[in-house]
UniProtKB/TrEMBL annotation:
Species whose genome carries this gene: Actinophytocola oryzae
Transmembrane regions listed in the UniProt entry: 24-47, 54-73, 93-118, 125-146, 158-181, 221-239
Domain of life: Bacteria
Residues spanning the signal sequence: none
This protein's record includes keyword Membrane: yes
Name of the protein this chain belongs to: EAL domain-containing protein (Putative c-di-GMP-specific phosphodiesterase class I)
SUPFAM superfamilies from the UniProt entry: EAL domain-like, GAF domain-like, Nucleotide cyclase
UniProt cross-references to Pfam families, sorted A to Z: EAL, GAF, GGDEF
PANTHER family found in the cross-reference section: CYCLIC DI-GMP PHOSPHODIESTERASE PDEF (PTHR33121), OXYGEN SENSOR PROTEIN DOSP (PTHR33121:SF71)
EAL domain: residues covered: 615-868
Keywords: Membrane, Transmembrane, Transmembrane helix
Molecular function via GO: cyclic-guanylate-specific phosphodiesterase activity
Segments forming domain GGDEF: 456-607
Length: 884
């Protein structure tokens, strides 16, 4: 006899169940109508003829049918469909021998429908009534037909064929039901089902026929019948055990696969958290509960799952409805519920009749006579609880097989959940920054890529918090991390929870403003500047931070921004959406431009991209340019103001680029420094300059050279050794080499620069502080530094003739330098008045266009020959005297 519960297939959702119920109800009515019609037809064909003695026959047959209904074998077929195959063929065969059609039909219906009602399975009463009626009608039709047409055959053959036709009819009818309900069942599974039905039908029909013949025709045949039934019962137990193990394994596999598939779907999103349980959808949990319910044959299965330790349990119910108060027990006193306070992870079996008072109360509240309860635990905490209420075969209740099954299923479910939690945690960590909890670069790239695919009109923000080095040096990295965390929170509060936000590194953040334009991005940038610039409290300190923001639009194609002012022809071309890395690069270019210009925020424009490309080309081509002679040294002479003697020259680097022409140092030197090539540049200038000094010495001319150093050189403890080696290589006295360092570079970290400066001073090299007066020099540090010269910045010298303030500054620097025993050099001398004023103040050396512009080697030689004469002075060396 086929049994037809609702499916546990995971491709069904709760919204599908009402539709399936309606469709199954209509089909059940049709089956019932067909059964009634068939019964009326058989009754007309085989008129009832019997007396009151048939009442006892009917009662005995009903008892037989009732017994075999309880001794059933459940077979599950993939696709969520299950059948219950019972031994109805045995009493049916006996009924074909001894009773007419109405008596057998009534006995079968009383046993079958009565069993369903006792199990409170009301949704299949109509279907099973019609199906059972059809079974008996077909069996008697086959029996009567064979009896009439094969009168020469023994009566037992007609009985055997009639009994065998009943399970075949029910199986074919169930397959039609599967088709009507639109469920998928593979041909192999259907064939296996029919073959199992035929095998059991053959065995059962044979037992019924043989048992009746033996019992009625053989003296003392009842013991043989009982022995045969005992053997059949042993065979049934073994067969049902194997089927039970197979079904349990399939159920365990299906539960694990549902969790794994759902976890993979959720983990494919970087935004998925580390909570594995929450990653499984409600539909999947309902499918799991339904699968466990069908496997146990329970009236109800309840899954109580704790997705978050701080949140109440989520309840999923499959089967009979439960009181609403039982769904949210934590809101109605979960601590008082005995079934939720079980220790360990073992299965407990409770019956209302013999339970403790508190357990009995919990069962009454659940409207359950008995329950299997097992906690779901990981190594660290409670994941949830599984409850199974009331075995459908109430008289038998849950057995040891059910306890083992739910315990093993719960163990697999807890393990699958724990594994998914671990995988989700690993994936979360792979896509999120561990310090702030925001996306990291890979996670941000994936999320932003998905959003740009559907929202091309978006803007990428790059935010730099300029506080990290100072905080790290002053207070340590722990405090720097606290500032970074606070900045991340402020960014999240300002941008909102739906805006993708990432910490790229250090104090660098990125965000994608979906469906935004430059005007909106500027407003957001202004809000971020206000928020991030607010001082950060660190214990009793208040730390201020600078903020620089750059942003770029995704609606750019080939460097052209599409806007409302774009021409009609241009609007006809759909803008190509750039990828995340390109947007980040352009936003970074805009950020660098903002930092250079001193603005807090700037938008990317195509010209910035050209500048970036040009800068990139310069950096990548610089080393080759030095090797091929594109980079050369120009020299600007310096004279002694009192004597008009040429004391030396300053080496200035120049680059004649084959594509960009003559490049000023201000254009390529910062890029070279940023790329880490400044050491190569310094070595190149030192080498070329000292070669030139050596040539002058070979000609009897004693002219020194000044070379500019970068801050990087002051941090290199091996730099003095490099200077010493190049001086020895070219045999140049150290006093003919002057190393010029900017005031800001020296004073940025004087303690770090001091060891290098002292080592250079010990070599005998002249040390000069360049651009003096523009920085933030400390007189105390200036006295400690082993410098020999100060160079007055040219901006003061330019304004000296028209601005009394500049004149006072220059005079003060000259007096300060002399008071410290330093030589004072004035840059930017372009007029005779300025030269005379400097000479009157006592300034030692002048340099500027009045004396000469920077000259190439060839032009410097010509300048020396045209404007100088050799003379012998008081000293024993040769000097060059500038002619008036």
């Amino acid at each position: 006899m086929p049994d037809h519960p609702m499916p546990a297939s995971t491709d069904r959702t709760p919204e599908d169940y009402p539709m399936l119920n309606r469709r199954f109800g209509v089909f059940s009515v049709l089956v019932l109508v067909a059964g009634v019609a068939a019964a009326l037809g058989v009754t007309w064909w085989l008129p009832f003829d019997g007396g009151s003695e048939l009442i006892w026959t009917g009662l005995l047959l009903a008892v037989g049918f009732l017994i075999v209904e309880q001794l059933s074998v459940n077979i599950d077929v993939r696709g969520g469909v299950s059948w219950t195959i019972s031994f109805t063929e045995i009493p049916l065969a006996i009924g074909l021998f001894v009773a007419p059609f109405p008596v057998v039909l009534a006995a079968h219906l009383v046993a079958g429908v009565g069993t369903l009602l006792a199990r409170r399975v009301q949704d299949r009463v109509l279907y099973n009534t019609g199906a059972e009626t059809l079974e008996i009608a077909v069996a008697f039709t086959v029996f009567a037909f064979l009896t009439d047409t094969l009168s020469g055959r023994p009566g037992w053959f007609a009985v055997f064929a009639g009994a065998l036709s009943a399970p075949v009819t029910s199986t074919l009818l169930a397959l039609v039901a599967v088709f009507v309900l639109g469920r998928r069942i593979r041909l192999g599974a259907a064939t296996k089902l029919v073959s199992r039905t035929l095998v059991l039908g053959l065995v059962n029909a044979s037992v019924g026929v043989v048992g009746y013949e033996v019992a009625t025709n053989v003296d003392n045949g009842w013991p043989l019948v009982l022995a045969m039934l005992g053997g059949l019962w042993a065979l049934y137990l073994a067969y049902s055990g194997l089927l039970r193990e197979q079904r349990d394994l399939e159920a365990l596999s299906e539960v694990s696969l549902i969790v794994a598939r759902s976890g993979r779907r959720a983990a494919a999103r970087p935004a998925a958290g580390a909570d594995t349980a929450a990653a499984v959808s409600s539909e999947d949990w309902l499918g799991i509960a339904q699968r466990i319910k069908d496997q146990l044959g329970a009236a109800r299965v309840v899954l109580r799952l704790r997705f978050d330790p701080q949140q109440p349990m989520h309840t999923v119910v499959a089967g009979d409805e439960m009181a609403k108060a039982m769904y949210d027990l934590e809101a109605t006193g979960a601590r008082a519920d005995a079934l939720l306070r079980l220790p360990g992870s073992h299965v407990r079996h409770f019956r209302r009749v013999d339970a403790l008072p508190e357990v009995r109360t919990a069962l009454v509240e659940r409207d359950a006579q008995e329950a299997l309860v097992v906690p779901l635990r990981s190594a660290s905490h409670l994941l949830g609880v599984v409850e199974a209420h009331d075995k459908l075969s109430r008289w038998r209740g849950f057995g040891q097989a059910d306890i083992r099954m739910i315990g093993t299923t719960a163990s697999h479910l807890a393990t699958a959940l724990d594994n998914r939690r671990l995988l989700a945690t690993l994936r979360h960590d792979a896509y999120h920054d561990p310090l702030t909890g925001l996306y990291n670069r890979p996670g941000f790239r994936q999320v932003a890529t998905e959003l740009l695919g559907t929202n091309p009109g978006s803007v990428m923000l790059r935010v730099d918090l300029e506080v990290q080095p100072a905080i790290s040096d002053a207070l340590g990295y722990a405090w720097s991390d606290r500032i970074t965390i606070a900045a991340g929170r402020r960014l999240r509060d300002t941008l909102g929870a739906d805006t993708p936000l990432a910490r790229l590194e250090g104090g660098a953040f990125a965000a994608l403003l979906v469906d935004s334009d430059f005007d909106q991005a500027q407003l957001v940038a202004n809000q971020l500047i206000v928020s991030l610039s607010t001082p950060y409290p660190v214990d009793r300190l208040s730390i201020e931070a600078g903020v620089v923001i750059g942003y770029s639009s995704a609606s750019m194609a080939d460097g052209v921004l599409f806007s409302e002012t774009t021409s009609a022809n241009a609007r006809d071309v759909a803008p190509a959406t750039m990828d995340v890395d390109e947007l980040l690069k352009r936003a970074d270019v805009a950020l660098r431009a903002a930092r250079t210009s001193g603005e807090p925020a700037r938008a990317y424009v195509p010209s910035m991209g050209q500048m970036f490309l040009r800068r990139f080309q310069l950096v990548t081509q610089f080393r080759q340019a030095m090797e091929t002679g594109q980079v050369k040294i120009h020299y600007q002479p310096k004279i002694s103001l009192p004597s008009r003697e040429i004391l030396g020259v300053e080496a200035l680097v120049r680059w004649r680029h084959p594509e960009f022409g003559d490049l000023h140092p201000d254009e390529f030197v910062p890029a070279v420094e940023a790329a880490g090539l400044v050491d190569a540049l310094t070595d190149f200038v030192l080498e070329q300059s000292l070669i030139k000094v050596r040539k002058w010495m070979d000609r009897g001319l004693r002219i020194g050279v000044a070379v500019n150093l970068s801050v990087r050189s002051l941090a290199n403890l091996s730099f003095p050794d490099s200077v010493s080696a190049v001086l020895k290589r070219h045999d140049v006295p150290p006093e003919l080499l002057t190393l010029e360092l900017t005031e800001s570079g020296v004073m940025a970290d004087p303690q770090r620069a001091l060891p290098v400066l002292r080592a250079l001073s010990n070599l005998g090299v002249v040390l000069a502080v360049d651009d003096f007066g523009t920085g933030y020099s400390s007189l105390a540090y200036l006295r400690q530094l082993p410098v020999d010269e100060v160079k007055i910045d040219k901006s003061f010298v330019f304004g000296m003739g028209s601005d009394l303030g500049d004149l006072a500054v220059v005079r003060s620097i000259v007096e300060l330098g002399h008071s410290l025993g330093l030589t004072v050099v004035a840059e930017g001398v372009e007029e005779d008045v300025a030269r005379d004023q400097l000479a009157a103040m006592g300034c030692d050396v002048a340099q500027g266009y009045l004396i000469s512009r920077p000259l190439s080697e060839e032009r410097l030689e010509a300048w020396l020959q045209a404007r100088t004469a050799q003379a012998r002075g008081i000293r024993d060396e040769t000097v060059l005297t500038l002619l008036s």
